[in-house]
Amino acid sequence: MRNPVASALISKMRMNQVERYRVKLISLQLLASLGLNPAQVDLISGFIDTYLKLNPQETEQFIEELANIEPKQQEGVMQIVTSWMEQGIEQGIKQGIEQGIEQGIEQGIEQGIEQGKKQEAVELISRQLSRRVGMLSSQLQQRLLNLSTTELEDLGEALLDFTSVRDLEVWLDSK
Can you tell me the distance from the alpha carbon of 124 to that of 82, in angstroms, rounded to the nearest whole number? Predict the structure, then answer.
C-alpha cells in the first residue's frame, strides 16, 4: 500500500485500545516508506499524531516496539518523531519568548506608572514645601528624590506642621 491517505486514515480507524501504539507505529512506518516531501510528511504525521495521541504507557510501548523493527524503517519513523520534537521545542521557545515579552511589557508599564507617581509626588511635595518653608536647596531636593513613594506621602502630611526648613531637615534625618 503506497497511499498517503491510507497512512493518515489508519490512525482514525476504530481499534482496540491495546493496539493504539501499534497502529501508530504502523501508520508512521507506512508514511516513512512513501517517499513524500517533508511538507507532506509533516501534514500527514500531524494528522496521525492528532488522532492517535498516546498516553505515557502507550508511548513507552511504542518506543519498545520501534526498537524491534528493521533499522532502515526505524530510522524513517525516528525522523518523523524527531521533527515533532523539534516543532514542539520551537513552539515552546516561541511561547516562552512571547510570555517573556508580555511580562516585560507589564513590568515596564507598572514601573513606569510607579515612577510617574513618585515624580508627581516629588513635584507636589516640593511646591508645597517651597510655599511652607521657602525655596529648597539642591541638596534637600536630592534628598526628596531619594524618598520612596510611601515616605513622600508621609512627608505630605508631616509638612503641614513645618514652620521652617529645619523642620524638614529633622524629618528627613529621622528617615
Answer: 62
